[in-house]
């Protein structure tokens, strides 16, 4: 027997709430196992709703202790209650107060939703539907209330007591060892933004003065001993606050902004009003334990959560179908912030790689859904790359289509018109229509249609007529529940390169709208003619990745080489190198599958040499250009009948060919670009380190005499985590001499830092080779493995399932089995972590027949489980459909 699938929730069934909850007064008396929550709700019937209509409040695993209406205990026949629902049968027709007392057990809350305890600290996570695990409520984003929160706890255990908003009062509770703090948030907000924290935490204070000269107290709260790891996060916060004023005209709106770092957290971070709660990996950093990538992530996530204060909190979502309204827009904003703080092309390439590795496969598999879905069974499963990253791409296209000025005018109107509201994508788009007069009805399809459009390109040059003609067509391959699709608006940034490498003047053409350097596709086919083109050009299309589409264009190798060397759009230069490598890797994979060993083409290998020796290329860009397409990217390109072993082997072949041909230059680059002096996480220095480590990555397989020693030395003499981890990865993943010694050395150096130890688990889980499965099984009983800590589970299992294709998809099925068993085990404790792990099967149908059958049987085993969570049931049903 299998567990039931949760009922479908549909956008078309949306109904406004029948009651408003205008004010919430909460008293939370904290206790590890018996926390009492007294919630007083000021409730009012909506004007158009009939008097006496029942009030139905959401709950989840709650137990009711007392219920009073306007101060009177409610008679038993006046209500019905269960752990997940409280119904008041016939509420008064006038506004009334409902006082609900519930009791909850934070210590036993292993789902990490609602109020829970992590390493002795009480904290909350309420998005999407966690508040109903604290008290009965209208737990939906369109119910906005003003919250006052009184937190009570023993003084010794919990010297720090925090909630949303501004602190009103703090004091001892007479005659006890307890104290209290009273917090008030004047901004109406939905319940998912509620937060409370209590514990024995260290406070790292700072201050920010807003553009209108308002002083804001900033605090980061961390476990004692971690105070020294907060300076980068604090610096990032202050830069975010300033940037949002400068670029979007948004100021902060409370007296205090608090951030708390906790070590057990299901996701990255949460934008609770005035009290952001973070996974500690996005707060804590020093050169000893954090990589350049960690520093960059911290900066981006701190910014992201801060930017939510306007895009998410001041203006929130009417319902969870509109999740991209806040997430897509906020990701776009944090991407822009990083582009301004660092290098715009490097950021763009990094984001596109992420999109192609995470979102494109999602959009091409059984879990595909539109940026704004129309149906869900479990909302927690929709915090996806599609909603976040593709959602950000759609906002970026909006900016491209409307131009900077039109875009910012529309956004200003949005902030103005919808401040304090819970709203929709339609309302958002209308702001841009109203300010620019553009009809966005076709553009809106980007929110409605799942799947990645494929743009097919064919071109011809007519020397006699001096014309260049271009045929463009677009199509979305079928995705679950969407057989046909309508043509989307696709902005294609382009340049026509002349033989000198310069862009030709091509600002007019027949057959399509052009504005500046953007071709605007609006139909399924465009036949375009550029005239006055005096010599055969090379088309550089989709510059800066101006739309989340795939381009199907046959390129001559010489043209790609030309673009790789000459395109003045850095993104497309990078793309040209990638396309060359990809073509070659697909070819080599095919050859290997037929049992042969082809040699990588000289023309491709030499392009890598040219990139390496290009003196004018920024080191960070060079490092990216020298990065081969990932195994997952190659698998995606091949699309069906995928054999991960052949892909791994092909990739290794190309890597070795490059290494052997350019070993001298690689060794020199590894040394030359290694920054000297004190560590600094700034983008320029990090870019040099990236290049140095990329060169070392090749040199390690160069077959030269000192390659092994050289790699070991880099690892063992590293004075920062970026270099140490890069060295460790090479030693372990390439099974080089010193592999075990390096792991031991790393362990003894970092066993006290759980963030550094996550990397140790991750490196071992992602090592190719037959021994990895046994290693993982033995790591399950390592004293530092903790199956209840989401970061640790992700480090060992998620990284295995998503970053070790050959071992996850082993031809004997043992990799699938290991993950399936882990999903079942974790699901009992923490459904969100389990269902996320389960999504690693999403591309199973693309595998070869044997692996496909093995994946299916592992999935069937999960599906037949009787007590699967809603979260995992939803993913398994869709994965198998
Ligand atoms: N709103 C949070 C953020 O984007 C993420 C919350 C994730 N919630 C969830 N149920 N998965 O920063
Ligand atoms: Zn977010």
Automatic annotation (TrEMBL):
EC code(s) of this entry: 3.4.11.2
Peptidase M1 alanyl aminopeptidase Ig-like fold domain span: 451-553
SUPFAM superfamilies according to UniProt: Leukotriene A4 hydrolase N-terminal domain (SSF63737), Metalloproteases ('zincins'), catalytic domain (SSF55486)
GO biological-process terms attached to the record: proteolysis
Taxonomy, superkingdom: Bacteria
Recorded family membership: Belongs to the peptidase M1 family.
Protein name: Aminopeptidase N
């Amino acid at each position: 027997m299998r567990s039931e699938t949760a009922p479908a929730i549909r956008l078309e069934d949306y109904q406004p709430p029948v009651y408003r909850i205008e004010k919430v007064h909460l008293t939370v008396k904290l206790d590890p196992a018996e926390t009492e929550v007294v919630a007083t709700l000021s409730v009012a019937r909506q004007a158009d709703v009939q008097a006496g209509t029942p009030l139905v409040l959401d709950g989840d695993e709650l137990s009711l202790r007392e219920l009073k209406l306007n101060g009177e205990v409610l008679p038993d026949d006046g209500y019905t209650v269960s752990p997940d629902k409280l119904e008041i049968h016939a509420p008064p027709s006038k506004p009334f107060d409902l006082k609900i007392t519930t009791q909850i057990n934070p210590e036993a809350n292993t789902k990490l939703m609602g109020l829970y305890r992590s390493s002795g600290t009480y904290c909350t996570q309420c998005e999407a539907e966690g508040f109903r695990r604290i008290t009965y409520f209208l737990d939906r984003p369109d119910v906005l209330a003003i919250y006052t929160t009184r937190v009570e706890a023993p003084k010794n255990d919990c010297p720090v007591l925090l909630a949303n908003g501004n602190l009103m009062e703090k004091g001892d509770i007479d005659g006890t060892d307890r104290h209290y703090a009273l917090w008030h948030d004047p901004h109406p907000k939905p319940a998912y933004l509620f937060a409370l924290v209590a514990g024995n935490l260290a406070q790292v204070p700072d201050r920010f003065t807003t553009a209108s000269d308002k002083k804001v107290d900033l605090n980061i709260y961390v476990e004692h001993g971690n105070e020294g790891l907060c300076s980068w996060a604090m610096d990032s916060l202050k830069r975010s606050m300033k940037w949002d004023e400068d670029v979007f005209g948004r100021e902060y709106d409370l007296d205090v902004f608090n951030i708390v770092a906790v070590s057990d957290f299901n996701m990255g971070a949460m934008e609770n009003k005035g009290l952001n709660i973070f996974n500690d990996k996005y707060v804590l950093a020093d050169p000893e334990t954090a990589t350049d990538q960690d520093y960059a992530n911290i900066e981006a996530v701190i910014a992201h959560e801060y930017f939510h204060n306007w895009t998410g909190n001041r203006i929130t979502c009417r319902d969870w179908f509109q999740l991209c309204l806040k997430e897509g827009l906020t990701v776009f904003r944090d991407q822009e912030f990083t582009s301004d703080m660092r290098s715009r092309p490097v950021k763009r390439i990094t984001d596109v790689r992420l999109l192609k590795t995470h979102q494109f496969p999602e959009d091409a598999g059984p879990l595909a859904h539109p940026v704004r879905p129309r149906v869900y069974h479990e909302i927690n499963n929709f915090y996806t790359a599609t909603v976040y990253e593709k959602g950000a791409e759609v906002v970026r296209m909006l900016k491209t289509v409307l131009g900077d000025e039109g875009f910012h005018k529309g956004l200003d109107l949005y902030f103005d018109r919808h401040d304090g509201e819970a709203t929709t994508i339609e309302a958002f788009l209308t702001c841009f229509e109203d300010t620019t007069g553009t009809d966005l009805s076709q553009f809106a399809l980007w929110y409605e249609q799942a799947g990645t459009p494929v743009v097919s390109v064919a071109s011809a040059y007519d020397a006699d007529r001096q014309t260049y003609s271009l045929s463009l067509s677009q199509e979305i391959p079928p995705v679950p529940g969407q057989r046909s699709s309508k043509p989307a608006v696709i902005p294609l940034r382009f340049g026509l390169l002349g033989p000198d490498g310069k862009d030709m003047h091509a600002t007019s053409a027949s057959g399509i709208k052009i504005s500046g350097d953007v071709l605007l596709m609006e139909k399924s086919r465009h036949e375009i003619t550029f005239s006055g083109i005096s010599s055969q050009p090379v088309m550089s299309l989709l510059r800066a990745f101006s739309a989340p589409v795939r381009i199907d264009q046959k390129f001559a190798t010489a043209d790609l080489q030309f673009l790789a060397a000459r395109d003045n759009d850095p993104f497309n230069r990078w793309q040209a190198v990638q396309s060359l490598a990809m073509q070659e890797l697909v070819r080599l994979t095919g050859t290997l599958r037929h049992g042969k060993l082809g040699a990588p083409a000289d023309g491709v290998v030499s392009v890598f040499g040219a990139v390496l020796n290009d003196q004018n290329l920024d080191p960070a860009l060079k490092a990216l250009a020298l990065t081969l397409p990932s195994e997952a990217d190659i698998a995606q390109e091949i699309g069906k009948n995928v054999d991960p072993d052949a892909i791994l082997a092909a990739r290794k072949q190309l890597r070795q060919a490059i290494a052997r041909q350019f070993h001298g230059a690689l060794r020199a680059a590894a040394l030359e670009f290694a920054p000297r002096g004190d560590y600094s996480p700034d983008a320029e220095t990090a870019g040099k380190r990236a290049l140095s480590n990329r060169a070392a990555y090749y040199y390690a397989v160069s077959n030269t005499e000192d390659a092994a020693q050289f790699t070991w030395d880099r690892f063992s003499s590293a004075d920062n985590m970026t270099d140490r981890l890069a060295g460790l990865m090479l030693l372990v993943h390439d099974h080089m001499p010193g592999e075990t010694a390096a792991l031991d050395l790393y362990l003894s150096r970092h066993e006290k830092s759980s963030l550094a130890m996550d990397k140790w688990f991750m490196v071992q889980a992602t090592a190719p080779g037959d021994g990895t499965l046994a290693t993982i099984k033995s790591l399950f009983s390592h004293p530092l493995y903790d199956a209840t800590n989401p970061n640790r589970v992700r480090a060992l299992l998620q990284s295995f399932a998503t970053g070790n294709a050959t071992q996850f998809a082993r031809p004997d099925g043992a990799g699938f089995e290991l993950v399936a068993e882990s999903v079942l085990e974790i699901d009992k404790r923490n459904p969100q972590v389990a269902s996320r792990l389960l999504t690693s099967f999403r591309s199973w149908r693309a595998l070869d027949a044997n692996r496909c059958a093995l994946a299916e049987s592992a999935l069937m085993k999960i599906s037949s489980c009787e007590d699967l969570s809603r979260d995992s049931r939803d993913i398994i049903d869709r994965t198998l459909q």
